Amino acid sequence: MSTQVIGGTGDAGADQPASQGPVLEVRNLSVDFGVDKQWVPAAIDLTYHVNAGEVLAIVGESGSGKSASSMSLLGLLPSNSRVSGEVLLNGKSVLTMSPARMRQIRGNDVAVIFQEPMTALNPVYTVGFQIVETLRLHNEISPDEAKQRALRLLQMVELPDPDKAFRSYPHQLSGGQRQRAMIAQSLSCDPKLLIADEPTTALDVTVQAEILDLMRNLRSQLNSAIVLITHDMGVVADLADRIAVMRKGRIVETGTADAIFNNPQHEYTRALLAAVPHLGQRGGNDGVDITAALAAATHTELQSIDPAELERREHEVLARATSAVTRPDADPVLELDDVAIEYPKQGRVPAFRAVEGANLTVYPGQVIGLVGESGSGKTTIGRAAVGLLPVAAGSLRVVGTDISGFRPSSKELGAVRRHVGMVFQDPSSSLNPRLPIGESIGEPMFLAGEAKGNDLQKRIETLLDQVELPRSYRNRYPHELSGGQKQRVGIARALSLRPKLMVADEPTSALDVSVQAKVLELFQNLQRELGFACLFVTHDLAVVDVLADYICVMKRGRIVEQGSRDQILRSPQDPYTQRLLAAVPLPDPAKQRERRELRAKLLATSD
Amino acid sequence: MVWYIVRRFLQLIPVFLGATLLVYFLVFSLPGDATAAICGERGCTPGVVAGLREQYNLDQPFWIQYLLYLKGVLTFDLGTNFSGRPIATIIAEVFPTTAKLAVMALVIEAFFGIVFGLVAGLRKGKIFDSSVLVLSLIVIAVPIFVLGFLMQFLIGVKLQWTNPTVSGDATFTELLLPAVVLGLVSFAYVLRLTRTSIIENVNADYVRTATAKGLSRRRVVVVHVLRNSLIPVVTFLGADLGALMGGAIVTEGIFNVNGVGNTLYRAVLNGDGPMVVSIVTFLILIFCLANLLVDLLYAWLDPRIRYA
User: Fold this and answer.
1) pLDDT band for position A7 (50/70/90)?
2) How far apart are CA A176 and CA A195, in angstroms?
3) CATH classification code of B89-257
4) What are the sequence ranges of the domains in chain A?
5) Tens of pLDDT, residues A426-442
6) How far is A121 from chain B (nearest CA, A)?
């Protein structure tokens, strides 16, 4: 029977000596899936261990087998799977256990935090019901006592109003709150081992930083072993003690976090680290050091930064506040003047104003990064620029034409749309699954009457060349392509009318890091070559850092700060921008520790 | 919530007016003289015909007839049918039988449909699943009158387990056979709907969470999978309840059930306008109420749906 330490003030577990010997030992674990009467390996011959109070990060891209191997520890794989090898939990073999014994372990000794808290919690039961269910399953306690414990758990995960959260259904909580509730549930029986499967992937950066803080605190409180499954090197740097890098089902490298980040041995680990876009990467001589920028903004002295440099930066911050923005001498391709955008009212649901008072100008050839967290209205601006959403107030000019008064499917709007291309977030759902990709690419040209017959075919081939896809792919269907290839098709389609403005709505957020790096590189080359202006909507500041000339930060429907990339990343003025930058984890454990301190300081001063 | 229910009841008013107007107009437009049906083969003297016309307002123009009918309904006087019996009494007589039959059929189809669908869904691709699917396809494909006569002949006449027809008392055992026939087709739909829904939900993330919590398979299925899977099934059952309450003309005909379906059928044959309009209006109201019930049940099953 486990002892409950929940409700402690935080130092209860911290000064307990970490018990020696691994909590989890995995030896020669292999997982196969039966597909079309054949065994396809998902994980091959894995051997690793985790000690109490230690965080082991299993890192890899999708399909590397990191999730499948971890789910096999609890027998949570679908029935078409086969597991072999040995898994020891506190010295007891897990894989040979009876189903009844396995159920006692699940949720009690080993708990799981899943990726997507919206779907991982049952939508038809309250959070309280689901936590109480777990508590009463593994402990013989009365409903009242279970409720009290559940409330204490919700308090421990720092939910603002535990009583309310207890009574709430998952959809009534925000993404971060749902993940806290999920964590509360998994901690309910003081598990010795916690498996966190991409716990922050579905969350915004600032929320991610909060959840990571929470997990770090809990880990010192509870002294559990944690297996963290993630593809995000920043998260790994923030939390992990040791790292196992997986590729195509095998562990290619293991080591301490410092060793992996500073001295990666395996070629794949190096490639993975290099592919991670991180802030300040595009450096060169005039490198952007966010940590330094934030230190300057908060007047913090750090070991890693020269005081003279800090002073220079502080001057720079002051200078920027008084300097005027220089304007290129060309007619803007997109101009927002005090624009408000509403989602029109539907039946009884009143109109929702998603963007208010937005001023933004995009000049030819400029790449503007529009960043913000979910619900900030960044996608809304992107959509309105293509005329997909009506402008409620102000004027929105695209290539010189004011489209704010146009009706949704009017001819005038159609004419303007020829100058604008759009790349969507999810390449799988934004391509028609019943059309060969060649037709998807050619359709805009055909509809606009730009090209027909042989001419059209030639244009399609040129576009395929431009996005570096083989011409023979034109007759393939979207499901035959990988995610990265599909997004290349999406880019080719957006380029087909030689647009003056491209609106790219999170085009790489659904892709793996190494694929993302390639797609971004292609995008950058195309932009340089073709010279279109681009409104690049993203939540990922690192991507903006790589691509954008000019950055625009949004928060709750308003643009809080805009300026050139250097201005924003070197000397952020708005407290929100500073917090946003501070929340991005760095793929470097030592620097991330500094960043964390800065963030804490920022949060403290902003209240 | 209360306000929502009030609003839904207010919505019944235009439905009621529209339905009565439409049905009244259809009956009014029927060819032939309505009094001929009352007088039968022998015919009436012109004086009697004139009297009947006056009694049933048949000498008035359409609008006046309709308004007089509305006035009657609003003062809870449905009038009499062409045989002179009060329509309200007739409905009160036949409706309980139909309601009994409908509820029995609904319980049968819901219970067996959900249980079979659940098992088939959990054992997707296995023998039970495949055979149940084929069976349900056969039930859907065979017309109901074939099923009805077949069951009546086999169980009622050959095996004599029950009476082949239903007497005036319409006892529970007598109604069992027609209820099975009536529920059989919908049973097949409920089964398929439940099966699909279960298959969809059994791989959902929250089911994996429930398993990871250490819950038994049984509790995972009953508490977590089933409730989520029942949402579309309930919609179907609610619509079906409305349809069943309207009386099944074919089934009631085969088993000689003295229910709403049979009465309505006779009224249509006789050109009994007041009777047809009253019954149809009554059925429409029942249907609307059944729908309201479904919507409320829906909100109870799925807390994401909230009515304001």
Assistant:
1) very low
2) 18
3) 1.10.3720.10
4) 22-275, 334-565
5) 888 889 989 999 999 99
6) 5
